[in-house]
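ugh ok fine here u go
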Amino acid sequence: MADNNYLLPALIRVGYVSGAHGLNGALRIKLDNPDSSILQVQQQLTLAQDGESIDYTITAVRAAGRGTFKVTVDRVGCVEKAAALRGAVVMVAASALPPATAREFYYFQAVGCEIVTTTGLSVGIIEEVFSNGANDVWVVRQRSAEYLVPVIEDVVKDIDLAARRVIIEALPGLLE
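structure:
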């Protein structure tokens, strides 16, 4: 597999600070992917709030249930400082992510890719990704049109991240 690191942004969002936890300045962090173990393997995180980004060293991480973690970081030692960070976006260095294996990719890499049908029809650009519970879905937009493309084998036929292009099979009703 080719090295796709050039497609990685410097930082990627992994969640947000939902509030303070306890009196000693721990942060309650809600992950975008509740099944992720990213905080347990990271030593650094970046918090972005009000146009400012600050790097912190993680000193402790403990699961708090439902995709939420109690995280202590350097320089935040009281409940007031932790509470002030409520709503901050939590980011980690993309270079710290484990490499994707063959036939795998990170969904943030797909954002910005053009979607084309197997017949060559341009559908639009992937602008968002969300989960509907059964599978992930790409939000694809072109001008005023919006399509919801399920990320399943029956639909997604080829992904070329280097060319920023995805080929899909337009099943009946998908593009209506």
